């Protein structure tokens, strides 16, 4: 018995409801959109997903002390960049193809890169620009000039504030600082809440009022996404290597978890959950050097082009977004070595993804939802906002593209229209070279999401077939693209 009704009666009601939904779905030759599969992303989350690649900048007191975590007792006058130029950061990020910059406005040592009314531990108490400097002002202006989004990291953990640990008072202090950084610098696209807290067993225990902080972000910057271990908008990917799981759902179930030590297990963060309750997509943060902050002895330890490419494929290529950290140096500049490596990365990615070999190819599917809007060709039209839909009553389907002359590819890029929910859970890609050849499998995978990039051995084909084996609802494919990786040297100096 369920709720006092007999099981057959419940099943009959369920069948009637399913039939009703199917009627609503496609009827009388009228074209209707597929029904979303919950949970779906908010408008701000969708817009964020499209950015894919942004810069993190760790630049603050630690830059000048050589630490990674400061104590909070540093003299503000130690903050002394000699040639700070946020336009150089912005130009470097833009040329690398990044779409935004998130700056450590305040790290765990509590030093504020803007003149804060609420503390003396800030740039106004340094000698930089005679105490009239404001790094947030300079960077937000530069971001606007270079058409980049601007975001802030504001560490909840604060080792300088005497109020820390006196929970209501510190929460007021943090809320006031949040208001400052979200009010005076134009649009903010992301607010980054670090979960770190190194207070030992005898340290101060601060109970943060994240609900209040969230309300402030929503009030002042309604389009900004909030990052933390548990979102609410964007989640940590569970490691600092820049790698999302090969299976990577945009959903997790955050109930019962907090931030930092009380956050969800790394596996949930890394892989997401097929049946997760909330849409909280992963962001892969990783530094271009071993440290988050600049250390001169790491000038020759900038990650190699091969490592950065691998990170790209394991983040952007696995339904993640890549937040690549640039440790700005003591001059206040992105170091020449880092800037050169970023140029190499951009050149390599541009060369590899220059020409989609499947664009405009003939496409057919074994099943398609009625309506030209949902035809197989929509997956190869170069428009990420159109898609092939396999039909209301199926959770599998195959899409085949055919070329007049053979194409050789070693990169496959797949995408789902995420506004309708993340659906695909198992697929294969096969190819044949000539209509009489047997099909051979070139790739097999699980999730797709915003973007799934598969690196495969060079494959020559006149036909390529994507088979969706399992999905959480009707399969929808926004893009099936094929590329040949650049093999020539792209070194840029
Ligand atoms: C961590 C911090 O403790 C590191 O210093 C750095 O800011 C990194 C991005 O997040 O939790």
Describe this structure in words.
The chain is of the alpha/beta class and 493 residues long. The protein folds into three domains: 1-32, no CATH class; 43-352, TIM Barrel (Alpha-Beta Barrel); 362-483, Jelly Rolls (Sandwich), CATH 2.60.120. It is 23% helix and 23% strand. The chain contains ten helices and 18 strands. It has helices at 7-25, 43-49, 61-65, 86-95, 135-145, 167-183, 210-220, 266-271, 305-315, 336-352; strands at residues 53-58, 100-106, 149-154, 190-192, 225-228, 234-236, 251-252, 278-279, 281-287, 321-327, 362-365, 388-389, 397-415, 424-432, 440-445, 452-471, 476-477, 479-483. Strands 1-2-3-4-5-6-9-10 form an eight-stranded parallel barrel, surrounded by four helices. Strand 4 (190-192), helix 7 (210-220) and strand 5 form a beta-alpha-beta unit. Helix 4 (86-95) packs parallel to helix 5 (135-145) and helix 6 (167-183) packs parallel to helix 7 (210-220). The radius of gyration is 25 Å and the shape is globular. The model is unreliable at 1-28 and 489-493 (pLDDT under 50).
Helix content: 10-25%
What is the approximate shape?
globular
Mean pLDDT: 93
- Quantity of strands, as a count: 18
Largest sheet: 8 strands, parallel, barrel
Query: What structural category do the secondary elements indicate?
Result: alpha/beta
What portion of residues belong to β-strands?
A: 15-25%
- Radius of gyration of CA atoms, rounded to a whole number: 25 Å
Summed up, the domain count is 3
What is the CATH-assigned architecture of the largest domain? Alpha-Beta Barrel
Contiguous helical run count = 10
- CATH level-3 fold name of the largest domain: TIM Barrel
Ranges where pLDDT stays below 50 over 5 or more residues in a row are 1-28, 489-493
């Amino acid at each position: 018995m369920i709720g006092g009704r007999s099981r057959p009666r419940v099943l009959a009601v369920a069948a009637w409801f399913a039939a009703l939904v199917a009627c609503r779905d496609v009827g009388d030759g009228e074209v209707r959109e597929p029904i979303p599969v919950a949970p779906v992303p908010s408008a701000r989350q969708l817009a964020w997903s499209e950015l894919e690649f942004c810069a993190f900048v760790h630049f603050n007191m630690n830059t000048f002390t050589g630490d990674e975590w400061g104590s909070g007792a540093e003299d503000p006058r130690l903050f002394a960049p000699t040639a700070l130029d946020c336009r150089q950061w912005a130009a470097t990020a833009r040329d690398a193809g990044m779409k935004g910059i998130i700056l450590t406005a305040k790290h765990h040592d509590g030093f504020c890169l803007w003149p804060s009314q609420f503390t003396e531990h800030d740039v106004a108490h340094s000698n930089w620009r005679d105490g009239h400097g404001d790094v947030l002002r300079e960077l937000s202006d530069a971001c606007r000039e270079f058409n980049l989004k601007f975001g802030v990291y504001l560490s909840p953990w604060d080792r300088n504030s005497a109020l820390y640990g006196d929970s209501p008072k510190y929460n007021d202090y943090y809320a006031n600082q949040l208001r400052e950084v979200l009010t005076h610098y134009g649009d903010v696209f992301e607010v980054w809440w670090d979960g770190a807290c190194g207070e030992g067993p005898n340290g101060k225990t601060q109970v943060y009022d994240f609900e209040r902080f969230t309300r402030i972000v929503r009030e002042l910057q309604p389009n900004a996404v909030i990052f933390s271990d548990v979102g609410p908008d964007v989640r940590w990917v569970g490691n600092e290597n820049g790698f999302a799981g090969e299976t990577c759902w945009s959903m997790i179930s955050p109930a019962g978890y907090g931030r930092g030590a009380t956050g969800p297990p790394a596996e949930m963060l890394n892989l997401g959950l097929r049946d997760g309750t909330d849409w909280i997509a992963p962001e892969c943060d990783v530094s271009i050097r071993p440290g988050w902050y600049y250390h001169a002895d790491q000038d020759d330890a900038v990650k190699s082009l091969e490592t950065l490419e691998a990170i790209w494929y394991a983040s952007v290529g696995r339904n993640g977004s890549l937040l690549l950290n640039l440790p700005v140096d003591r001059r206040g500049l992105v170091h020449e070595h880092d800037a050169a490596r970023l140029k190499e990365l951009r050149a390599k990615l541009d060369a590899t993804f220059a020409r989609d070999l499947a664009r405009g190819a003939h496409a057919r599917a074994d099943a398609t939802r009625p309506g030209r809007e949902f035809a197989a060709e929509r997956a190869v039209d170069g428009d990420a906002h159109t898609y092939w839909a396999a039909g209301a009553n199926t959770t599998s389907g195959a899409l085949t593209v055919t070329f007049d002359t053979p194409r050789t590819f070693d990169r496959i890029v797949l995408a789902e229209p995420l506004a309708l929910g993340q659906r695909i859970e198992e697929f294969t890609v096969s190819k044949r070279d000539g209509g009489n050849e047997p099909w051979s499998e070139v790739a097999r995978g699980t999730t797709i999401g915003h973007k799934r990039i598969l690196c495969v051995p060079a494959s020559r084909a006149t036909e390529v077939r994507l088979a969706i084996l399992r999905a959480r609802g009707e399969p929808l494919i926004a893009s099936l693209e094929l590329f040949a990786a650049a093999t020539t040297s792209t070194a840029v100096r």
